[in-house]
Write a structure and sequence with these properties.
Its main location: periplasm. The protein is mostly helical. Helix content is 80%, strand content 0%. The protein has 5 helices and no strands.
């Protein structure tokens, strides 16, 4: 259980790693990650890219520290507390990123964020359906 949880938390940090290196023209793994592409579309200045990397690095470090705090406390109540703290940390970083952007960039960022949230919700719904189907078989 612990190894599975650690692997899950490691996998959850991968998007932050992908977002931490948004240099223009640079594509990771054949350009399949959406985050670098999104940052290219935002036409960020050098200072914005630097600040964005810093924020994403801080968010990744914060996420790791939060995860470590709860690894040994896996009862349901602790899992819910961890999930809330991670969500709060993610939301704070999202708001900090928006503050770095001009109005047009904020609009693009918000549109991208909405699309990603919709994809995540769709994926979660699919996984729930698949788990229910597998239980019936």
């Amino acid at each position: 259980m612990r190894k599975t949880f650690i692997a899950l938390m490691f996998a959850a940090t991968l998007p932050a790693v992908a977002m931490a290196m948004p240099d223009a023209g640079q594509r990771h793994h054949g350009g399949k990650h959406a985050a670098p592409h999104m940052f290219e579309q935002l036409d960020l200045s050098k200072e914005q890219r630097r600040d964005m990397r810093k924020l994403m690095g801080e968010q990744m470090k914060s996420r790791h520290e939060i995860t470590q705090r709860y690894l040994d406390k896996l009862p349901e109540g602790e899992r819910q507390a961890m999930a809330k703290e991670l969500a709060d940390s993610k939301e704070k970083t999202h708001q900090d990123i928006r503050k770095l952007l001009n109005a047009e960039q904020q609009k693009q960022f918000d549109e991208f964020h909405s699309k990603m949230e919709a994809k995540r919700a769709e994926r979660a719904e699919f996984l729930k359906w698949k788990a229910e189907r597998d239980q019936k078989n």
